[in-house]
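Good morning N.,

You mentioned wanting to compare the apo and holo forms, so I went ahead and generated the holo version with calcium ion. This is what I fed in:
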Amino acid sequence: MNGEAQGTHNYIDAATVTLQEGIESEVYIVVFPTADPSITGRSEVQEFSFGYTTPDVNFTVMFKSSSSSRYVPTVKVNDTEYKMTKDGDYIGANATKTQKYYWYKATVSVKEGESVALLFTNSYSMRASINLSEVSANGVYYFGADNLNSGTTAVDLTNADEYVRNFVKSSTHMVYNEAADAGVATTSIGGVIYKMGDADEDNTVSVLDSTTIQLALAGKTELSETASDLSDFDLDSTTSIMDATNVQVYLAIGN
Ligand SMILES: [Ca+2]
Ligand SMILES: [Ca+2]
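and this is what came out, ligand included:
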């Protein structure tokens, strides 16, 4: 407390107090009577205010997008808009290789304890939003929208496995959510791009991959960690007979 005894007279007319969050503080205001006959009336504390300034929390927002100019994302966090910039190498491309997909990044700031409304937009017509009840300081949060053309819902991929988070197929299939998203989809693991379903890691998806998945499920072959990820053709985070079946369906009918 920076109460100030002024001159030879003992009175306090203002004080500035800084409180730390989480620490209980008691504040005493003391007004001494003055003995100076030149001062008449009463000493008075007219205004006394103190408070705790809520600190800023900085965190990183990542959004998966095509680098085509019309898709380059902007994020609005509560009332502040941030440009997003490409971060790292591309994580996949569409089938015709006309679009490459990257993570875009923005470092943003909110008040501690504040809930966070995120709105991702691009110059196409995507307006994908999501709310977070709180964020942690210096945290990194990953989001995607299933449809970069007109998506309205951002999906939180922060806690997804790397191969699920980095799933890409096309600007309308950026987040896996149904069987139609499978097929020639790719993912990026450790900076290397793979085809989903390529359980034997020969860079093509064939009936041998379905067989490999079945052999692995029967305990007759062991998959590397990457092969195990790629075996999860339907991205439900487990390798099952459905993945072997879905690879066969994909080979039979394409996508
Ligand atoms: Ca293969
Ligand atoms: Ca699966």
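Helices lie at 162-165, 207-217, 225-231, 241-253.

Happy to go through it together on a call whenever suits you.

Best,
F.
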